[in-house]
Amino acid sequence: MASTSDIRNGLCIKFNHDIYKIVEFLHVKPGKGPAFVRTKLKSLTTGKVLDNTFSAGHKIEDVRVETHTYQYLYAEGDQFHFMNNESFEQITLNKNILDAPDLLKEGTNVMVQINTETDLPLSVDMPASIILEVTYAEPGVKGNTATNATKPATVETGATVNVPLFINEGDKIKIDTASGSYMERVKE
């Protein structure tokens, strides 16, 4: 058993007969009244996100997890295939477990958290950013910009990302996997 002082991002807990991963948390100590922890929890079975508030010192049941590095191989419909980099064992995960499945490029290494009690995969942590090539982008028209004008661009995985007007087809861009937003153009 853990308490609210052990709460951190990425912690997996049992809550309401389901397993949740803590996405965000905030310890709040108001001037009047007891302290509490405001959390954002993501269900690892359904993918739903809910907000919950725990009072300070509340006992929570944590889930023991192991983290392993897996390489993304390919997708087959809603099923995504990964290979363990150490044992070369392959697993198949459903699309709803993944945070940003449309940004996954074949050969990308991800961290998979596995429940030690049931040996079932719980969640997949993508790298913080990923570099992808732009396969389609409308040409930017000079002169019709205000400030920070963007246009949609399609990357090699099929995802659509809003990028600045100077990005063209064939450019490699760095994308933040948490928000799915453009970070910078990458020179080679």
TrEMBL record:
Protein name from the UniProt record: Elongation factor P
Gene Ontology MF, one: translation elongation factor activity
Record-linked InterPro entries: Elong-fact-P_C, NA-bd_OB-fold, Rib_uL2_dom2, Transl_elong_fac_P/YeiP, Transl_elong_KOW-like, Transl_elong_P/YeiP_cen, Transl_elong_P/YeiP_CS, Transl_elongation_fac_P
Lineage: superkingdom: Bacteria
NCBIfam families: efp, PRK00529.1
Gene name of the encoded protein: efp
Pathway this chain belongs to: Protein biosynthesis; polypeptide chain elongation
Protein's organism: Flavobacterium pokkalii
Record Pfam families: EFP, EFP_N, Elong-fact-P_C
Keywords from the UniProt entry: Cytoplasm, Elongation factor, Protein biosynthesis
Residue ranges the record marks as coiled coil: none
SMART domains noted in UniProt: EFP, Elong-fact-P_C
Signal peptide limits: none
Compartments it resides in: Cytoplasm
Matches recorded under PROSITE patterns: EFP
Domain Translation elongation factor P/YeiP central residues, every copy: 67-122
Protein purpose: Involved in peptide bond synthesis. Stimulates efficient translation and peptide-bond synthesis on native or reconstituted 70S ribosomes in vitro. Probably functions indirectly by altering the affinity of the ribosome for aminoacyl-tRNA, thus increasing their reactivity as acceptors for peptidyl transferase.
Domain Elongation factor P C-terminal: from-to ranges: 130-185
Record family assignment: Belongs to the elongation factor P family.
